[in-house]
C-alpha cells in the first residue's frame, strides 16, 4: 500500500506526464502562485503521495500543516461522503445545520482559552480566522489597535497582510489598515549578544511595553496577537516565561491575548493545541484561532473564545456564506475523534524525539547548522554560513530542498531570511518512512556543502 511505501524515484524529475501538466499550469494560472517542486500528485495515502509518472514521495510539508492526519484518511473520507449524500451546503444565517453545532460544541470542550463557558464560530481559512479574531477583540473591548510581532505570518487579506511581518508577502498591496503595531518577537537564538536567557526574556518584554509609549497607549489596544510557534518566521517557539509576561500585561491593561494556532493546532505540538501548554502554566489565551489540519484538507477554520467575548460582538459583523460548511464540519468531527482515539499528540512527541536526536547530531557535525528548535513535531533547522557569524544561508537551504526532492523527499524553507527548513510531516508517518526521510535529508546536506 502507498501509505506504507518508501520514497522511490523511477524517472528524472519532472517526469514526462508531470512536465506536460506543469506546462499547462504555466499557461492557465498566475505566475505569482509559484511551485518549485517538479511533481504532480496523482494520489496520496498517509505521509506519502505518488505522482503522475509513478514516482513516490515522502511529504514533510503536509500542505504546510494541513495534513497532520495524513492524505486520505479512510474514516474522514467516509464521514465526508456520508454528509455529501445528505446536503453539501446550508448557511447558518439562513437555516441551522447540526454539524456546525456539533463541531462548535466539540471545539468548546477542547480549546484551551480562558473561561468555563465558550463559543466557537467557523470561517474558511486561517487568514479569515485571524481577521475575525481581531474584529471580535475590537468589538468586545471597544478599542481600535492591535499589537503583533516581528517574524509573524497571519495571512494574505488586507488586515492580515498588515499583521504579517514579512513584507515580501505584501509587495505593491498598500496602503494598509491603520492601528497595527509591531513589537520584537523573542527569538532566543538571535537574542542580543551577551544576554542570558532570563535577561533576554526581560529584554523582549520591555520591547513589547515600549509599544505603549512609541505607538499606541495601552488603553487603545484591543489585542496582542502571536503564534505559539512562528511558522513563516522560522519555527521560533514563544518561551513560556515570555508568554506569562504577555498574559500579565494583557490582564493589567484589559487587553485580549490571541494565539494564532492556524499552523500549530491539531496535535502538531504534542498537545491538541500548543495553547494547552499555556493553560497548564496559568497563562491561557482569551481567543484562539485554528485552521490548517482542522478538517483534513477541506476548507475550514475556527475562532474560539469565552462566551462573554463572543456575545459582545456587534450583530452582522462576523459570519459569511460558506462558513462552517457541513461537509467540512463532518470531516473535522471525525478527524478530532480519530486524533483523540489514536493519540496523535503522542505520535507528535515520538516523532519529535527521533528527529530532534538526529537534528542535534547534525548540529554538532555540520558548521552550517546554527540552531535546531521546535515544540513537538513542529521543528525547524536553521542554516547559517558559520556558527560564529550566524549569517543566514538561504542559498544552501534552496540547494538542499532541490536536492532532496530528486530523491523523493519534500522539504520546505521558512524564516524571515529563508534559511530554515521546516518539519510538518503528517503525524501518521511510519518509523521506516521517517528514517528514510532523515537519511535523504542528511545526504542532501552532505552533497550541498561540498
From TrEMBL:
Reaction(s) catalysed by this chain's protein: (S)-3-amino-2-methylpropanoate + 2-oxoglutarate = 2-methyl-3-oxopropanoate + L-glutamate; 4-aminobutanoate + 2-oxoglutarate = succinate semialdehyde + L-glutamate
Keyword Ribosomal protein: no
Pfam families: Aminotran_3 (PF00202)
Cofactor: pyridoxal 5'-phosphate
EC number: 2.6.1.19, 2.6.1.22
Enzyme class: transferase
Alphabetized GO MF terms: (S)-3-amino-2-methylpropionate transaminase activity; 4-aminobutyrate:2-oxoglutarate transaminase activity; identical protein binding; pyridoxal phosphate binding
Recorded metabolic or biological pathway in which this protein acts: Amino-acid degradation; 4-aminobutanoate degradation
Keywords linked to the UniProt accession: Aminotransferase, Pyridoxal phosphate, Transferase
Taxonomy, superkingdom: Bacteria
Family the entry assigns: Belongs to the class-III pyridoxal-phosphate-dependent aminotransferase family.
UniProt protein name: (S)-3-amino-2-methylpropionate transaminase
Lineage: Bacteria, Bacillati, Bacillota, Clostridia, Peptostreptococcales
